[in-house]
Task: structure prediction
Amino acid sequence: MGKTMHENAVAAPFAAEKLRLAGLRPTRQRLELASHLFGGPDRHVTAESLHDEVVEAGIKVSLATVYNTLHQFTQAGLLRQVIVDAARGYFDTNTGDHQHFFLEDEGMLIDIPGETITVAGVPTAPPGMTVDRVDVVVRIRRS
Result:
């Protein structure tokens, strides 16, 4: 669901500060996308779904710019990328410790709190490397 111009105007100062703290210059397009991403509760988006949302809100931005910006936000630690399969990846505004249910029929991710899953048997990383994180995606269907 798109935001109104008023909601974006209110979210813009928050978005600008969030970008600055992450070391990113608050360009117009970054601000507009950050206002849509971070102005509410945590959520999961695809580049396509975010592009549709901002275009519906009257913001002119290319899908390529949305992809590039999402990857910049991920590299800066503002988002977490969740790869579901070779053709589908989501961007998660919740960068904390958690895993995901993936509702396959609907293409929807649902957070699983981090403390509810224990992963055993993680191999030791090769010399000079450390394990950054382990992602668990539990695939579910409606009964």
